[in-house]
Amino acid sequence: MWLRRPSLVEAVVGVLCGIPVGAFFLPTTFWALPIAVATAALITVLPQRPLTAGVVLSMFFLLLDLTGLTSDGGPYLAPFLIGVYYLGRYAPLWRGVLVALTFPIASMEAWNQSTVAFALVFTGSVFAYGRVVHSRAESAHRAQASAAELQATDATAVAARIVADERARLGGQSLGLLRAAVEGMRSDAVAARIELDPALIESVSRRGRQAVTELRWLLGILRSEPNLEHSSEPPDARIRTIDIVLAAVLILGGVLERAFAVWQPPSPLSWALAIVLPACVLVRRRFVTIACIVATAGVVSGLLAGVLPGLSSLLCIVLLAWSVGTAGLPLLWLIFAALAAASAGWFDLHEPGNGLFCLAVIALPAFAGLEWSAQDRAARAASAEADRLRADLEARVEATRREERLRIARELHDVASHSVGVMVMQASAASALRERDPAAARDALKTVGDTAEHTIKELEVMFDLLDSGAIGAPGLARATREPLQRLVDRMRKTGLEISLQQTPVPPNLDDVVYRIVQESLTNIVRHSNGRNVRIGVEWSGDEVRVGVRDDGVRRADPPSRSSETTGFGLIGLDERVGGVGGTFRAGWTDEGFLVEAVLSADAVARL
Q1: Rounded-to-integer distance, Cα 5 and Cα 258, Å
Q2: What percent of the chain has pLDDT over 70?
Q3: Residue 74: alpha-carbon gap to chain centroid
Q4: How far apart (Å, rounded) are the C-alpha atoms in residues 332 and 329?
Q5: pTM higher than 0.85, yes or no?
């Protein structure tokens, strides 16, 4: 439809603007009722079609002047104020300015320099009210649009996209670093087997130590807790400063008006009003009711004492009117009605005919403040809702990102701790056996090469998973598929005596079981003085039990039983087991160090 049904406020304002126009023309022409209806209709339509209705309204009043029905601009005051205000409130800025300028042209009685200057200042002030409310309405619309957009946002899709970026960036960087280190260690180990070059053997160990150091730093970043604290900014003091400056300017203006008044000698009451009314402006934001009561008492006192009001007094009352509108309290409106009536009488007493103008000038900012307040409440509510939705979305995304970072950290730890640790240890063994047992040294270097080959294959699988975009699924946790027996055989080359007793386990727990055994054996090789290891994997009923026990002896100052990578190994196992709803414990017993996990056979792996 070209026009919507006007709101109740728009209709009431239109009627209130049409009534004084009709009342003014009623004694002189039978066209009074059509003129009143036309005025009310145009004012009512202005919020919807501000430019069109504004031009028609201005031309309508100009036509009435040309017909000679009246030479007085009094009946146009209310439509003038509301029309210019609506143009500022609803019309585009510059086109609204041009149309607003036609209003004083259509209603101006005399064309002289002072009249034109006053008309321009008055029109600009009224238009500015509309622009202020327009600005707040735009803020409310933006906040509502933002809240609606956040409401419609698929948090799962956003989280998946961010996790994909996180995995590609951190996972790719970390895996690339690890693969480069492993390939270099393999290359040096293959070359060192020929002549048992001590420099090449040392290069294997050095590359491994460097890789572990760099991965330790990466794992620290991946496992760091996110900073979810939002800095709270101190309250903005600019509004308070503006009020102080504004009150000072009004006091200065009032004092100058009294000091240079030629029409009436200043009295003690006039000096008091020059201070009291600006003081009411200063405190109006916090104590608006008290400020209005004091201002009303001051205006009534000035009216009864015959004190002439000045421009500064009118500006003080106008600012109070705006604050009354923004507060919107019922009792305050009653006090403001008394203030407006007293002010109109005050100005009309010394300048007959100005009472109606004064009343309109005071009522408009109250109406504008009321509209601004409504838009402000809408903006605040929408902003609060948008902030809540944004916080919920950020929390969900951060939780998903955190989960993915922990996933990557666990996988990197498993590969780095096991493969790199074994290769470094075998390289150290080769260095020690190089002169007295060259064959054993070459076997150790062969183990380095074989471990590197297995690690590179594992890394290739992990890179493939990164490229495939498998987000949210177990993904990286399923990179390893070799049987436990092959892992045990490889670890026996490190000198461990390992016994393995296992039964088949549910497929969804293969990877968790493998990682538990792998991490436990790696820690034994690197940190334990035990050499005999018993591994048990049993599926009975709805439980899968995994136990790894060595015969090590607790030292007086034992090193951490997790890996060099900042002790994240056992933490990662606890997370893996918890991810499938199981329980995990690790610690010393009378028979040695025990790692034990109880898993639910029906669990679906999440990690």
Answers
A1: 51
A2: 84
A3: 51
A4: 5
A5: no
